[in-house]
Amino acid sequence: MSAKITLYDIPGRVAGGAWSPSTWKTRYALNFKGIPFDTIWVEFPDIEAISRKLGTLPTSHRNGKPRYTLPAIHDPNTSTPLAESALIAEYLDSAYPDTPKLFPPGTRPLQYAFIDAFMSHLDALWQFTTPATHAILNPPSQAHVRRTREVAFGRKLEEIAPTGAAAEEEWAKVKSGLEIVAGWQDKGKNDGSFFLGKEPVFVDFAVASFLMFMKKIWGEDSSQWRDISSWSGGRWGTLLKALEKYETAL
Amino acid sequence: MSAKITLYDIPGRVAGGAWSPSTWKTRYALNFKGIPFDTIWVEFPDIEAISRKLGTLPTSHRNGKPRYTLPAIHDPNTSTPLAESALIAEYLDSAYPDTPKLFPPGTRPLQYAFIDAFMSHLDALWQFTTPATHAILNPPSQAHVRRTREVAFGRKLEEIAPTGAAAEEEWAKVKSGLEIVAGWQDKGKNDGSFFLGKEPVFVDFAVASFLMFMKKIWGEDSSQWRDISSWSGGRWGTLLKALEKYETAL
């Protein structure tokens, strides 16, 4: 098993190119396991055609229509095409059993429930991140994001982010959401600095991937990232720092 | 440490008296650990006064006013009064270290996140359970539940449960919510029949407590319980059966 895996990712005009919270989970996963990979960069409008060609399954259906998303990988060692970050993590655990586990035995139900709960507390975030994401994309992906997000939000891209007092209120909701996550983390503070103790697992990389996304789209020196990395005792910056060695392939 | 713990519970006109999903968590916890206890039954209007006398803390605040809830315990062996089922479980793990763990080391953050996610998928349930709960309470608690729930729902108790097509739609949401939980459980099916593997932990008893609540307020022969216990391959009835030995003190 020595041929490199291919990771399909969405390019952005940020350092290193990777910004998507979904694909970061797989990027972290591969680096955490020390599995070599190459990246193929795919613009949003090309994801479906490339996924079909690759042979990955749609990750959801909307109004009866299949939706294809990234990350996807192709593992030439087992001739496996696969989409969706949690499924990819499960696959890597099983296909590369001598690498560190993202889902230690017995933890899958709780890690999936964690992801569900975590995502439910990010509801207020997307109105802020959508225009910022659009801003760092290449033109073909920009057009795609504008079209799909304007339908989803029911308003022009330029009107998605709240302003004035509403912006403050909504940003406070982002903060409270992350404070709930910090509360769960505090419950384990005597067991280690990660959610399951001394070693990071899938949920740590999932949380880190969303933080990375915020850091990438707004930039390290933005007021947004300065806010986020100061919340709950500065722990979110600390978490990224702790996982920094898994940002790039060794 | 041989004196019996006192469990403060809310009485209902059901077999055994216990129906509350919150207090069932502690009932299960004590039995799982084999810790002897006696029950003191408290009607809703008396909870605050008894909690203050006992010295437990309010479990939340609403409009700046403290809210006291059950379960609460008093442990005469350590002179500890304590409210809130998860905190009680943590306390029992720590005060009785030789008993089986509800929160095995490293699992607290994920178990708390699980509870958060689990509760978020029960949103459609309360409109159905509120009138059924009212029906099995004693008159002093009935008056309390009617008053507080009518304020919370903004309509008469008799109008809280949906009817006709709306009832079918809302009941389908209850089903989908529990199907999501079943999906998490399936992720661990190779590791054991409980959420964390071969032995039940706090989240198993939490899920079981809500199932027990539904079974108690509607009755085993109700159409509601027949529905619920048939969903997702009949697993909810199976879970209660698997934990049946922890329903009553040994």
Describe what this molecule looks like in 3D.
The structure is a homodimer of 250-residue chains. The first copy, chain A, is α+β, with helices and mostly antiparallel strands and 250 residues long. The first copy, chain A, folds into two domains: 101 residues, Glutaredoxin (3-Layer(aba) Sandwich); 134 residues, Glutathione S-transferase Yfyf (Class Pi), Chain A, domain 2 (Up-down Bundle), CATH 1.20.1050. The first copy, chain A, is built from ten helices and six strands. In chain A, the strands form two sheets. A four-stranded mixed beta sheet of chain A has the order 2-1-5-6, with helices on one face. In chain A, strand 5 and strand 6 form a beta hairpin. Chain A starts with a strand and ends in an 8-residue tail after the last helix. At the A-B interface, helix 4 and helix 7 of A face helix 4 and helix 7 of B.
